[in-house]
Structure formats: C-alpha cells, structure tokens
Amino acid sequence: GAVVSQHPSRVICKSGTSVKIECRSLDFQATTMFWYRQFPKKSLMLMATSNEGSKATYEQGVEKDKFLINHASLTLSTLTVTSAHPEDSSFYICSAPEDGGLGGYTFGSGTRLTVV
Amino acid sequence: GNSVTQMEGPVTLSEEAFLTINCTYTATGYPSLFWYVQYPGEGLQLLLKATKADDKGSNKGFEATYRKETTSFHLEKGSVQVSDSAVYFCALRDKAGGFKTIFGAGTRLFVKA
Asked: Looking at the complex, does the CB of residue A60 fall below 8 Å from at least one CB of chain B?
C-alpha cells in the first residue's frame, strides 16, 4: 500500500536551534498533508494542514511562525520547528490521504523531538 | 463540532481474554470511522475502518461495527495476545470536517501472559 516516509525518526537538538522534519509520499501524490503533535500518553492534536503549492492552514493556538510548513511538491512536505525550546519536545506525525477523500490515510512513522 | 470519546485506560487483560474498547462519536456529517493502533515507539497504523452505517471493519481478529443509531464504533477481539499490547485510537473523518482526522484520547491495552 501507500507509504509516507518520515525522517528523522528521532532528533535531539539544543534550545534555540531549528529542526526540519520531512514527510515524503512514496508511490502516490500527496496534495494534502496533515501534521499532528502527540504529547506523552495523550492523543494526537492536529497542528496544521498543508496543501501543495499554497499556504498551510494552522489550527487555532498553533504558532505559524514557530512551526513552518512547506509543501513544495506533490511528494514532499516539511515541518520546521524554529527556535526550539524544551516545551516543543514531542512526537510529531504526518499523514496524507491516499485518494484525496474518505479512503485510506497513511501515517508517517513519527519523529520524536527532544530539545535540551 | 466533530468529536470522539473512547474509554479511558489502561485496560489490563490476560492472554486469550475478550476485549472491548468503547468508542462513541459526534459528527455533523456522515463520517467514516477508524481504529488505529500505536505500538511502543512507533507511529500509527490503520487497524480497521468502516465508511457507512452497519459496516463492519475487521483485521487481525479485531472488529468494529458502525452503529449510527448509537453513534458508536466499539472495538472487539475475542482472544487477545501479548502482542496486542498497544495504544488504540478511535477516529473519525468526514467531508464536513474538511477531511481532518479527529482522534479519541487513546486507550492503552496491556495483555499479560
């Protein structure tokens, strides 16, 4: 089936630095990519929706200047956590619809970010 | 708005026990319903889904039936294994919600040998 490849799987960075997370759709075109954040022992919170060639739509309360999303091609969406702080430490997961509708959505394997 | 409520965990069972994880939803449209599983340290995997009322999704011995009258999608398995230990998320998605996936809080399952 369709696969979304997410990298890196784990990253540790220093406070104040930026980290880029990539999600690539393999064997299908992802015109839309959803980005989620998961706090320890909590559910997934939708952060933003990216659409190829246009600006991302952010959920209420998510800082767009801190979490930069770029969806420059039909197979690649990136999330950059800028000026990271320890409170940004979390598990970030991307997801893309395989058929653009109510069918299958494929999730990346997630990125565990630790800011020290 | 759309929402999903699922039973709080953790749920601890012995191997071969019967599993039920309750899930109810609220939706403005006609959603598709999903169960996702997350094994320790991994991302989410789709376990099963149902796209319309009375549909039954099934996979790996798990099953859930889309009940529109009770707005429920309870997950069941007749005989759990240690390898089923994971976190299970009920979720919905519909066109009225912009195709965003709304997740329940997750239920952690521990299966003892």
From this structure: no
Residue-wise pLDDT tens digits, A76-107: 999 999 999 999 999 999 999 876 555 567 88
- Which residue type sits at A47? M
**Best to test chain A binding among B5, B25, B103, B107 (most A CBs inside 10 Å):** B103
Q: Are A59 and A47 in contact (CB under 8 A)?
A: yes
**Nearest-angstrom CA–CA distance, B106 and A63:** 25
Contact assignment for B99 to A101 by CB distance below 8 Å: yes
Separation in Å, CA of A27 to nearest CA in chain B: 18
Rounded Cα distance, A9 and A1, in Å: 21
Q: What is the pLDDT of residues A26-74, one digit of tens each?
A: 988 888 999 999 877 777 889 999 988 888 999 999 999 999 999 989 8
SS (H, E, C) chain B: CCEEEECCCCEEEECCCCEEECEEEECCCCCEEEEEEECCCCCEEEEEEECCCCCEEEECCEEEECECCCCECCEEECCCCHHHCEEEEEEEECHHHCCCCEECCCEEEEEEC
- R_g over Cα of chain B: 13
Question: What burial letters (b/e) apply to B70-106, b meaning 16+ CB within 10 Å?
Answer: ebbbbbebeebeeebbbbbbbbbbbeebebebbbbbb
